[in-house]
Amino acid sequence: ELGKYRHYMQKEIFEQPQALANTLEPIAGAGAISPQIFGAEAVDVLKATRRVLILACGTSYHSGFTARYWLESVAKIPCTVEIASEYRYRESVPESDTLVVVISQSGETADTLAALKHAKSLGMTKTLAICNVPESAIVRESALRFITRAGPEIGVASTKAFTTQLAALALLTLALAKINGRLSAEQEAGYLTQMRHLPVAVGKVLELEPEIEKWAQRFAGKHHALFLGRGSHWPIAMEGALKLKEISYIHAESYAAGELKHGPLALVDKEMPVIAVAPADELLEKLKSNLQEVRARGGELYVFADAGSEIAESEGVHILHMPEHYGMLSPILHVIPLQLLSYHAALVKGTDVDKPRNLAKSVTVE
Ligand code: F6R
């Protein structure tokens, strides 16, 4: 079943072009985005939506956190993202015009399911599940649904589920933007073209594997790593850190790069590899000055930059250029080298990649 791959995780990373193509099938031949892809009643629900509350755990929380940047900047809808296990137990203020979005690969995560039920018990009945398992508890409990078509994910570390969740959330953003009159026909066509090209774009990023493997060799011996990002790529830095910890057992933390000087910079020395997610967006110049702060303290930098970005290799600064810049959807591409990096670091360390210690694929206990 593994074919040419050594582990399910590697196979699933390389299945992402197909998983995305399958997930995006609802827009494959379409000239426009139709809200009905979220269910028959979606038009009315999305029209009445004034805010979005996203609830999820782990990697699924990171896809939701990325979507927050999209929903507020493109659809102009206020969005809150909360860890399901926190939301379910705290006193919060329900708002009836909220669309509650729960994100889950398995559809069985106990905390996410309980958070969904809790939101409903507070009167928030407009619910949407973004899920990889159609007959799961979370899907059954939700009014609207979008099924990601990543196919079965066997490796404990979530990879293709994450990128397909992001694709689904990008569609949700565009559907809400359109319904709110925030999307011109031209912009819609542009986004659709970009989304249809995603499988090819992801395929090109996967070709970076041999270079990433070399990087992984260099820091598999380290005990700590710091992941930095800004804007919609901060959650991608968070996801990179989570992947590295869970399968290679290297302690990794992620920070919004602007937070560096408010504390974590104290940790940086030559033993601390710093991985930066550095797309060519409006925050790049700011990020570069954060990277200089790291370099000045002797930290070894590993930078994932975009094609054409003017960041130069130098002593202690390693740069890998992504094949292309991808605008709003760039987080979907930028997470892929981080998946590969943690996979190869784990290989060097000889850990059980598909079944990391202490973890279960589906967390059905709280
Ligand atoms: C990390 C990972 C977990 C899950 C989390 C939620 O690689 O797989 O963090 O993302 O347990 O699981 P789902 O998405 O099934 O609700």
UniProtKB/TrEMBL annotation:
It is found in: Cytoplasm. It comes from the Bacteria. Its main location: cytoplasm. Homodimer. Keywords: Aminotransferase, Cytoplasm, Glutamine amidotransferase, Repeat, Transferase. It comes from Zoogloea oryzae. It catalyses: D-fructose 6-phosphate + L-glutamine = D-glucosamine 6-phosphate + L-glutamate. It is an enzyme of class 2 (transferase). This is Glutamine--fructose-6-phosphate aminotransferase [isomerizing]. Its EC number is 2.6.1.16. The active site is at 361 (for fru-6p isomerization activity). Catalyzes the first step in hexosamine metabolism, converting fructose-6P into glucosamine-6P using glutamine as a nitrogen source. One of its GO terms (molecular function) is transaminase activity. Residues 42-182, 215-356 form the SIS domain.
